[in-house]
Amino acid sequence: MALISRVGKRLRRIIQRPGSVELTRYEALLPAVAKLEPELEKLSDTELTERAEKLREDLGGAKAFNDDQLVETCALGREAARRALGERAFDVQVLGTMGLLTGHVVQMETGEGKTLAGALAAAGYALRGSRVHVVTVNDYLARRDAEWMKPVYELLAVTVGWVEPAHTRDERKDAYGKQVTYGAVAEIGFDVLRDRLVTTVDDLVQPAPEVAIVDEADSVLVDEARVPLVMAGSIDHNDADEEVATVVRRLRLGLHYETDTDGRNAWLTTAGASVVEKSLGGIDLYGDSGSDRLAAVNVALHAHALLTRDVDYLVRDGKVQLINAARGRVAELQRWPDGLQAAVEAKEQVAATDRGEILDSITVQALLARYPSVAGMTGTAVAVAEQLREFYSLEVAVIPPNTPNVREDQADRIFGSPSQKLRAIEEEIRKVHETGQPILVGTQDVAESEELADKLAKADLPCVVLNARNDAEEAAIIAEAGNKGAVTVSTQMAGRGTDIRLGGTDGASREEVAELGGLHVIGTARYPSSRLDGQLRGRSGRQGDPGSAIFFASLNDDLVLSNAPDIPEGIDADTETGEITDPAALRQINHAQRVAEGVDLEIHRNTWRYTRLIERQRTELLEHRDKVLHTAYAAEELEKAQPEKFAEVKEKLDDTERLEQLSREVVLFHLDQLWSDHLAYLTDVRESIHLRALARETPLDEFHRAAIPEFHKIIAESAARASKTLEEAEITDDGIDLADAGVRRANTTWTYLVHDNPFDSDFEQTVKKVRSMMRMKKS
């Protein structure tokens, strides 16, 4: 068997299959790590810290760890964890640490100790002399993990901090000054954007990026890779067309408008266009008199027809709050592009938020691409191994569990309709609950979780609900989900970050719950990704615990209707229960899931194709901006362009340092404004670029042709505008009144995530737009 295993590993390496990182090198080092334990146990805490300092000297900024250094790093980390946390790292955690220290994405099952493995790797990189960012999926985990692991870091002579939304600039600067900094991916990204707008060096909070260790790596690097993080500046109030919202609210699907099967486009029918035109005073939507209302009608129709309350967003505290579909949480800083955001606010009749202009943005993928070294950890990496390789040049190392997984994964149960499926789920919960076995039910969205909870309450089956409405209490809810008799109904479990321990947090009834079969997981539908299915299943069977998991599905679930609606004929359901046992039904659902995964991959690829050029342009512009920020370049250029006016200002100020800063602020203002204008221009180009395919042009090539020449105008134009500002500025005793000269930055800025309209393939996007346009025209 051992020979077969070795051959299999080598074969995977040769053919470069996903998850092909060979563990033989790391496994061979485990005895050496164990051999150091007795020696390190004899050291005092001070001596252990001194030994870590000695390792720092030996590493001396090395680019990579040799075997001896890996052994020493892991042995010191294991001993530090034993003393600080009372936890001796298992061999599999040591393997995970080695995988991270050699730049891989390690796959470790839920409950196998990724947090500690990540901390030991972060300490190793820090001892090597690198600044490390441990990138988490939310702010709660960033603070929790930093505080939890801090005693380990301190024993290893490594400083640690974290960033969160409430932190001031000084607190952020202090946190980033530590050798290891924990932060949610969005929070770290927003700090990057803020730093790109500063006008003095002292206002920078982040040092140059060096190493990123990404928790929930598949979620961050794949699921959120295309999500833009945005810095906006306030312009004015974002008033939606209330009259249009009122009219559209009365429209009915099938009569006044139609939608496509994947729910991405909606269009007026002839009857709908007639109703809207009459309601708006007899205008012609497609003529000159109504053209200014057509855009408002379209965006209001999108909000009305394609966005669903309690599925896509919540209304809470008088505000529209988006729901992160991948995590089932409210995305506090996420919003749609301003026109759509305002339309949803008008639809729900809540106060409109401010409208802003985008000052800068960055995708999560581009954010992580800034780091010279990236590693990651997750429970489900193999399924996206090809994407990790394609987009990040990362390989996956599959770490075996410390104890074998004994969870019983039961066959899916499939039904003809969602209502039949829901009745079967209710009966499953009743049957299992009567035994006392704890149950975790994973639903697709807030609306489904609350509908199921209502049904269970009426059936006298009490449950606790975890969804976007109460995500602040999630840690406490999840921690008790393993108690005897517990029934927990939750939306997406990915990235929740808290283990479900049998018997609850104190484990008082652990043995009794284990004898009952452990945690029973129920999925109310298959997710658009098999990884999400796996993450839900993985909540049961933690560290060799007993457990079970089962998914229920319907041939009329959204997954099937959106991705594989053509159901083969001859699939029969039980006349009483509606259950289907024909294998063709399972094949159809599996096919729908594969189609959904393929669509998501194509979206990722298309988004990256378009944003790659923008990132190159941004990098080039930032190099110029850094020169302006850190040197006297701006003053020198303005003196050349306007020598007499510059001399006049210089005489008034009698401070060359002060004059340099004034010059810097003028040049940076125009540079930043032109970049903001460029982003707006590229957005307009991108939204219309797919129509170029009608003229047999390649949309991506056309995007490049439009984007490149416009970008090359920015630096020269910023210099010209700065020169004109100086020429026209009024000279005062303080030199220049920048505000009076028009150099006024946004008095309010904010950051948010954009739920970007995803790209289909060029052909599909063109067909949909043309079809929509044709149907909107009056016959």
TrEMBL record:
* Entry keywords, A to Z: ATP-binding, Cell membrane, Cytoplasm, Membrane, Nucleotide-binding, Protein transport, Translocase, Translocation, Transport
Binding positions (ATP): 93, 111-115, 499
Report the EC number(s), separated by commas if there are several. 7.4.2.8
- Pfam families, per the entry: P-loop_SecA, SecA_DEAD, SecA_PP_bind, SecA_SW
Catalysed reactions listed for this entry:
ATP + H2O + cellular proteinSide 1 = ADP + phosphate + cellular proteinSide 2
Identify the SUPFAM superfamilies for this entry. Helical scaffold and wing domains of SecA, P-loop containing nucleoside triphosphate hydrolases, Pre-protein crosslinking domain of SecA
UniProt keyword Methyltransferase, yes or no: no
Principal place of residence: membrane
Q: Which residues form the Helicase ATP-binding domain?
A: 95-253
Mind telling me which SMART domains this protein's record contains? SecA_DEAD, SecA_PP_bind
The membrane topology noted for this protein in its Swiss-Prot or TrEMBL record is:
Peripheral membrane protein
Q: Which residues form a coiled coil?
A: none
| Residue span, SecA family profile domain | 8-584
Q: Where is the Helicase C-terminal domain?
A: 417-586
Quaternary state and partners of this protein?
A: Monomer and homodimer. Part of the essential Sec protein translocation apparatus which comprises SecA, SecYEG and auxiliary proteins SecDF. Other proteins may also be involved.
Which purpose does this protein serve, as stated in its record? Part of the Sec protein translocase complex. Interacts with the SecYEG preprotein conducting channel. Has a central role in coupling the hydrolysis of ATP to the transfer of proteins into and across the cell membrane, serving as an ATP-driven molecular motor driving the stepwise translocation of polypeptide chains across the membrane.
What family, per the record? Belongs to the SecA family.
Q: What is this protein called?
A: Protein translocase subunit SecA
